[in-house]
Structure formats: C-alpha cells, structure tokens
Amino acid sequence: MTAPLPDSTSSAAASAAGATTVAIDLGDRRYDILIGSGLFDDASTWSGLPRAAVALIVTNDTVAPLYLERLKRQLAPHYKQVESVVLPDGEQHKNWASLDRVIDHLLAGAADRKTVLYALGGGVIGDLTGFAAAIYMRGVPFVQVPTTLLAQVDSSVGGKTAINHPRGKNMVGAFYQPVRVVADLDTLDTLPDRELSAGLAEIIKYGPIADEAFLAWIEANLDALLARDKSALAHAVKRSCEIKAWVVGQDERESGLRAILNFGHTFGHAIETGLGYGEWLHGEGVACGMVLASELSARLGLMPPAFVDRMTRVIERAGLPVVAPRMPIERWLDLMRVDKKNEGGEIRFVVIESLGKAGLRGAPDALVAEVIEAHTEPGQR
Ligand SMILES: NC(=O)c1ccc[n+]([C@@H]2O[C@H](COP(=O)([O-])OP(=O)(O)OC[C@H]3O[C@@H](n4cnc5c(N)ncnc54)[C@H](O)[C@@H]3O)[C@@H](O)[C@H]2O)c1
Ligand SMILES: [Zn+2]
C-alpha cells in the first residue's frame, strides 16, 4: 500500500527568499533538508549537529576553491579541528582509490567514531563521502552539502551511498542516512550550464513518476529554471525533495516503491557505463534514458505515443540529449543485466503506467532493441 503524495506545503512565492525545510521521516534517523539562499553564511544552518572534536570536509579540486574556506569558517566554532580532503574532480574518481584516501586520512589522524564528515560538492562527492561515513568505524555521522542541482534534488537525499566498480555503476555501497542536508541555492550560481541541465533531468523525472501537476509546472517554468531564477529553483528543489522524501519514507531500502526513482536509469546507466564514466553526465544519461523508458511504456501499451513526444520535448528544451549513442544491442543488454533492480536474470524497467504513476516491468529483448533503435542516431550497426 502506498500513501498518497502530499501536496506541496507552501507556495513558490513563500520559498523565494527565506529557507524552507523538508523533513525526511525515518523515525530516530529523521533529518531535515534545508533549502534556500544564503544558508552557507547563516550560523544557524550549522548549529545543533552532532558534537565532535574533528570535522572532515570531503570535496574536490573544482569545488574547493569556491566554497571550502567558507565552510571551514562556518564550522570552526563547532570543532577543535576542521580538516579537509580534496579529491580529483570527476565520476571516474568515484572509486576505491578516492575512498581509500578519505579512510586513510581519518585513520592517519586517529579520528574517533564521533568525527563528523561533510560532503561538499555534487553527487560524486556526496555518494563517496556518505559511503566513507557508513564504513569508517562502522559508521560516523555525515552532513550533505550539495552544490549541484542534481545533488540538491536527488543524490544528497535518501541515504544511498556508493562508489563505482569498473563492471558497474554504484555497485559497492550502503544505505546510510545523513544527519542534515544543506542545499544553498546560491551555490548553483557557479554551476556550468551543462551541469544545471543534468540536474533538471532528475527534476523532470519526478513529474511522470509521481506528480502530473509538477510536470506541468516544470514545462511552464523551464525558462525560469534555465535562467537560474531563485524562486523557480526553490520550488523545483523543494518539490523534488518532497517527492523523494515521500518515496524514501515508505521504502528506504528499495524493496519496491523506491525503484520508481530510477525512471530512465536502466537505459541511462547503460549509456554512462558503455561510453565510459565521464563521457555523458549522469543526468544526460538519465534524460535520454527517460525518452527510451517512455517509448517502452508506449510500446507496452501503457501510455499513448503523445506521452513520448511530451517527454522528448521537455527534455530537449532543458538542454538534454534525446538521441541515444550507437552501441551494439548485445552491449546494451549486457550492461543492463548488471542493474540492481533485476531479479532472476530478467532486466526490469521503470515504466510509466499513467501520468504520475510508475511501475516495474520486464520486456522481451526484441522489444527493448526496437525501443533503442527508434531513438538512436543513424549510422552503422
Ligand atoms: N545517491 C543517490 O541517490 C544518487 C542519485 C542520483 C545520482 N547519484 C550520483 O550522483 C553523481 C552525479 O552527481 P552530479 O551530477 O552532482 O555530478 P558531480 O558530483 O560530478 O558534479 C558535477 C560537476 O560540477 C562540479 N561542481 C559541483 N558543484 C559546483 C558548483 N557549485 N559550482 C561549479 N562547479 C560545481 C563538480 O566538481 C563536477 O565537475 C553520480 O555519481 C550518480 O551516480 C546518486
Ligand atoms: Zn539519477
């Protein structure tokens, strides 16, 4: 049984300036997502967190010059020592070597099990830092400070943490919840356009899977979002987090409902892994994957062809790819067979059953091949 998705709790206007909070309700692991402008430099953002002697900020060499000193200044009053590990930027570094650098830093400094980790950056840093927090001394608290749109609307929320393995994305990880998420919308000002669009892919995702009205809102406000209008961003981040909170609150460990958050991801991960991490951005893979998953929904007779056109249009307007790269079909299928949603060797896809409602289905290989072919760039097979 799934509980109905609650309506958005406040209007976009109310969330334009001040911070809003979305709660993730997981009993004694309940935590807040703070969303707004100016959060970074507001002392109250950083108060009331678990006390410790040491805080370790994990970030990368792109984000560090922008925000590391500011975060250090804010945290200094709360800890004896505020340390940092600056990793090389990129999805290809979401791996054992980077994880080891974080763990090694903690051990070398004899960091105790109260040490608080701060993930300062996008989803790569968030996933890796969360996993480090999950396994260091069997678990230390961590705070997500997402600085990409994608991380603010998706990866920092819900407690999935992981690193990649050469054989598959996010294949080594843990469910481990942060103690707070701080989504300062001002950090999005420095984000490259391509990354902004990648974040929009995950925002768009929430419409067809859970909230038809939100899809219509995105279509109507896409230009404002692309122009980084703060009140539009505030609403988009908040509504996305509300939907994710609603899903995760019912199915934290993905025994069922939570899988719907992977709409577009089965195809998208295949593109990401198939081309090599870093070639297509995660959000770009998901975007194109949503076109394919919409096509599959149509070919399974669940949705009208007009739905595929509608999704293609909004994804394209968001500056995202709608045409899949050419890969041999066996390669696609091999890549999709390692997906965590699969059971008993059958590939399972998130499909849209009606606007605002998603489900999981298997599909014959031949049909999957047709779906991919219908949205692949022309060229040799
Ligand atoms: N855990 C989850 O539930 C979940 C959900 C979705 C995605 N993910 C993961 O998230 C990752 C993708 O996250 P992402 O899209 O944030 O990528 P990312 O972390 O690689 O960040 C994108 C780029 O933006 C840079 N950057 C970050 N913040 C910036 C800022 N404020 N200004 C300028 N540049 C900035 C980064 O250094 C990087 O170059 C993938 O590994 C994906 O698997 C996880
Ligand atoms: Zn995603």
Describe this structure in words.
A hairpin with a 2-residue loop joins strand 7 (160-165) and strand 8 (168-175). A seven-stranded mixed β-sheet has the order 1-2-9-6-5-3-4, with helices on both faces. The chain is of the alpha/beta class. Helix 6 runs antiparallel to helix 7 (230-250) and helix 9 (282-299) runs antiparallel to helix 10 (305-317). The chain has two domains: 20-190, 3-Layer(aba) Sandwich (Rossmann fold); 193-374, Up-down Bundle (Dehydroquinate synthase-like, alpha domain), CATH 1.20.1090.10. The radius of gyration is 20 Å and the shape is globular. It contains twelve helices and eleven strands. 42% of the residues lie in helices and 18% in strands. Its EC number is 4.2.3.4. Its cofactor is NAD(+); Co(2+); Zn(2+). Pathway: Metabolic intermediate biosynthesis; chorismate biosynthesis; chorismate from D-erythrose 4-phosphate and phosphoenolpyruvate: step 2/7.
